[in-house]
Write a structure and sequence with these properties.
The chain is about 55% helix and about 15% strand. The protein is an alpha+beta fold. A hairpin with a 3-residue loop joins strand 1 and strand 2. The longest helix has 27 residues, at about 60-90. It has three helices and three strands; from the N terminus they run H-E-E-E-H-H. The chain has helices spanning about 5-25, 60-90, 90-95; strands at about 30, 35-40, 45-50. It has a domain at about 30-90: Nucleoid-associated protein YbaB-like domain (Ybab, Chain: A, 2-Layer Sandwich). The chain is rod-shaped. A three-stranded antiparallel sheet has the order 1-2-3.
Length: about 100
């Protein structure tokens, strides 16, 4: 394979990677726990937080609510990472964790 062919192949791979990343960035991911729902873009931008539990939260429940928020946020971020890994799988080793 000559150098020109290698460069063309690398440029094509770069375009493919950027296209896949753009597709993921435009998706919406919803993370849920028992009390909380959070919505992120694929670019990991938090778009919304929704409290699902009805009624007034008492002070004793504050720590539990905070834990539920963390679970929901981590759930959404985990979904984004899995989608990125799935879409970028063929390019993963070549990119050394750039995404």
């Amino acid at each position: 394979m000559n150098m020109q062919a290698i460069m063309a192949q690398a440029q094509k791979m770069q375009r493919d990677v950027m296209k896949k990343k753009d597709e993921i960035d435009k998706k919406t991911f919803v993370g849920k726990s028992e009390w909380v729902e959070v919505t992120f873009t694929g670019a990991k931008v938090l778009k919304g937080v929704k409290i699902l539990k009805d009624g007034v939260i008492e002070e004793d429940d504050k720590e539990v609510l905070e834990d539920m928020l963390a679970i929901a946020v981590n759930d959404a971020l985990s979904q984004i990472d899995k989608e990125t890994e799935k879409a970028m799988g063929p390019y993963g080793n070549a990119l050394n964790g750039l995404f």
